[in-house]
Amino acid sequence: MTSSPTFKIGIIIGSTRVHRVGPQVATFLLDTIQNARPPAASNAASLPSCTTTIDLIDLKAFHLPIFDEPGIPNRITTPDGYAHAHTRAWARHVAVYDAFVFLSAQRNWGIPAELKNAIDYLFHEWRGKPALIVSYGGHGGVQCAEQLRTVLGAIGMRVVPTMVNMAFPSKEDLERAFKGEDLALDARSDAGPWAEHRGQIAGLFWDEMVAKILRGA
Predict the structure, then answer these.
(1) What region, left, alpha or beta, does residue 162 occupy, with left being phi > 0 and alpha being psi -120 to 50 degrees?
(2) In the predicted model, is pLDDT for residue 85 greater than 70?
(3) What ranges make up the beta strands (E) of the chain?
(4) Torsion angle (degrees, nearest 10) of CA 59, 61, 64, 69
C-alpha cells in the first residue's frame, strides 16, 4: 500500500513593524485553513490524498539586512553558495517548503520593504513552488497584492490567480492595527472580523494551491 505524500506549506508573515498585527492575522489564516480540513470542494475529490503540515514563518525572526549578497541569486543553486550566514539560514528554511501563503500588509499602496527584500534574497528556493497571496489594509491591500503577483511570477512561482484582499472593517480597527492591538480575530466566529473571507481563504488554499502541488502544474 502506497502512503500519501506529505507536503510542507509556510505562511509568511510579511511585516516586521515594531507595532504590528501580522502574527494575529497569520494565526487567523492558519486556524481558518485547519478548520476546513479535509477539503470538501468538488474538484479536490479528483486529486490524490496527501498529508500537509502548515507552519508560520515570521520574517522578524530572520533579521535580514537590506540585501547584501555579492552574488546574483538566480546563479546560486544551493544554500551553501551564499556568502552570508543570514542568507544561508533563510535559504535553508525556505528550501524545505513545497508552497507558501504570502501574507502582507499594504504600505503606501505597495509591498512592505522587508517582504520584498526577503523575496529578493533568494531565487531557486522559490522557483516552481505554488503561492497564494493574502493582503490586508485600510482598503484591503489590492495594490500590494497585484505587485506581489508580478514579483512572484518573475521568480517563477506558480501563483494562484485569485487573491484574498481583507479590508479593516472600521477606522477603529485600522487604528488598533496601527498600534498592534488585539483585533479579536476568531476563525470560528461567523460574526467576527473578516469572517466573510474564511470560505475564500480555505477554498483557495485547499482547492487551488494544494491542487497545484499535487498536479505539479
Answers:
(1) beta
(2) yes
(3) 6-13, 51-58, 99-105, 130-137, 158-159, 164-167
(4) -100
Q: What is the pTM of this model?
A: 0.93
Tell me how far apart the alpha carbons of residues 99 and 109 are, in angstroms, rounded to a whole number.
Answer: 26
Position 39 pLDDT exceeds 90: no
* Residue 116 and residue 16 in contact, taking contact as beta carbons nearer than 8 Å: no
Q: Whose CA is closest to 131, among 153, 114, 109?
A: 153
Question: Cα 45 to chain center, whole Å?
Answer: 24
Residues 143 and 127: their CA atoms lie apart, in Å, by: 23
Task: Please say if the pLDDT value at position 88 is more than 60.
Answer: yes
Comparing C-alpha atoms, which of 187, 164, 160, 159 is closest to residue 33? 187
Got the DSSP string for 124-175?
A: TTTTT-EEEEEEEETT--HHHHHHHHHHHHHTT-EE-SS-EEEE-SSHHHHH
Phi, psi angles (nearest 5°) of residue 48: -65, 155
Nine cell digits for residue 15:
511585516
Cβ–Cβ under 8 Å, residues 20 and 180: yes
- How far apart are alpha carbons 78 and 54 in whole angstroms? 24
Would you call the peptide bond into 38 cis, given omega within 30 degrees of 0 as the criterion?
yes
In the three-class reduction of DSSP (H, G, I as helix; E, B as strand; rest coil), residue 26 is classed as helix
Whole-angstrom distance, CA of residue 162 vs CA of residue 182: 28
Gap between the Cα atoms of 148 and 119, Å rounded: 10
Which is more confidently placed, 67 or 5? 67
User: Could you tell me the pLDDT band of residue 42, with boundaries at 50, 70 and 90?
Assistant: very low
